[in-house]
Amino acid sequence: MDPNLKRILPYMKNYKHHVVWNIVFNIFYALFSTLSFISLIPMLQVLFDQAERITEKPVYKGIWDIMNYGKQSLYFYITRLTETNGAQYALLLVVCLVISTFLLKNLFNYLASNHLTVIKNSVLRDIRNEVYAKIISLPISYYSEKRKGDVMARMLGDINEVQNSFFNILELIVKEPMTILFTICAMIAISFKLTLFVFVFIPISGFIISRIGKTLKTKSVKVQSEGGYLISIVEETLTGMKVVKGYNAENTFSKKFTGTVENILKLSNSIGRKNNLASPMSEFLGIIVIAVLLWFGGNMVLVDRGLDGKPLLDAAKFLAYMGLAYNILTPAKGISKASYSVKSGLAAAERVFEILAVENSITDPADAKEMGEFKENITLKNVNFGYTDELVLKNFSLTIPKGKTIALVGQSGSGKSTIANLLTRFYDINDGYIAIDGHELHHITMHSLRKNIGLVTQESILFNDTIKNNLLIGKPDATDEEIINALKVANAYEFVKELPEGIETGIGDAGGKLSGGQKQRLSIARAVLKNPPIMILDEATSALDTESEKLVQVALENMMQNRTSVVIAHRLSTIQNADLIVVMHKGQIVEQGTHAELLALDGTYSKLVSLQSFEQA
């Protein structure tokens, strides 16, 4: 059994009663699909005046005699109706019988399809929920290596492909095979000799179709992979539209896009040709068998005679037999098409389960405890860390007392933002020790740790929603009054109250309707509303103009009152009032002290201040 099939089956266990009913109704569908053709025999016999005459009512002899009892009873009533009311009433009886069998056949098909629809849609929902939960739980490091477009393609397109094609397997293993089985049983009952040709046809056609579809799964994986790359290109183009246009890079991105589209076209055409070949190939092979049956069966009706001088096969049974033989073609085609789509579904499932199989490297250990009230300090001791083999922090040690503002400064690449990533446990240290009030971070649950930390990043991350809902991310149960107070602290209420709908105003994709300073002040308001004891500000003013910076700086000072703050600063003018300034270079501390103390040292910090003063002058 395919390993991806094994992965999907557990999802179906939750809906096993739907699976059972689907199988039951499919069996009844297959039974009445066969009976609908068998019921043509008495109708044709009445038409040709060849109906078997039974004048005595048959006696029921038990379950094993039920088929014979049913047949005898039917011909008894046909005989009685013909003798008492005329042949047209007997014909009406068998016509009603034909209509009834076809009605029941389609009714059971409808009921089976309904249960299959519930299974497909429910499993699709469950897989989507699990994949999204996995996407949310995976560490930041996973997304630094993966294309977002490919993850989106697996989340949306591949899961849909699993739904659309994979669940054909229920028909592949129940509905169509049972139809073929019942049909062949009926055909054997009518003529064993003719049915031998059908036994030859099925394995030959199955072998040919399997050979055609042998490479289908591999090509399906390639198509889905290219589809992920395509979405990634579109996502990057939309995100970086200003750069694309500003650098006249439209042709470069268009070539990447059209090249990927061409690859998808070639692979899709190849898959399509094989898919399209399945149905006509199985039908053509079936028609060959039908032709052979017509020749041999026709001879049995018209030429060959038994010892009693009667034809080896009467005309009514032969016509019904041919209907049954053709009835095999539909499920045979269904099996061939379903087997192809299942391969495509398995290829899609493989990509989906690749995400679910990713091990989360940052998890809560079994003995992790909730973080209590923050009382004393944050300690980093001999911390070593690298995103790759090269270390970004080397034997880094620092103590951050409660209620103090600690500023981290230094050139780009010195490891400042890495400290923020480690304190929030977006990454785990290679070795060393990070603790809050003496409790190591990896012994504190991530949820309770992050609940006590507010984060304001250099890039204002806002969502396409209202101002209110963007702020509620930090505190979902906050009142409008609390939201307005947070906006006032963040120096943002002045512009928010002027908006058409106030805090209910939509801000567009990534806050595109607002200026950089307005977006940053909303980010600060979100952190203020959360009201955590520890605040991390990662270069929160570096992307702003001077006027916006002043407004944001006032907001930051308001927010940092009575809080423990770690400020990662690019503009040194914003951190002169910090309780401790830590100067970093290549992952190590080279100086630390207050602003005045560091200027007096006339070292690295003093040079950085001089450079920035010169740049601003």
Automatic annotation (TrEMBL):
GO terms for cellular component: plasma membrane. It is found in: Cell membrane. GO terms for molecular function: ABC-type oligopeptide transporter activity; ATP binding; ATP hydrolysis activity. Its main location: membrane. Keywords: ATP-binding, Membrane, Nucleotide-binding, Transmembrane, Transmembrane helix, Transport. Residues 378-611 form the ABC transporter domain. Residues 20-344 form the ABC transmembrane type-1 domain. This is ABC transporter ATP-binding protein. It comes from Flavobacterium stagni.
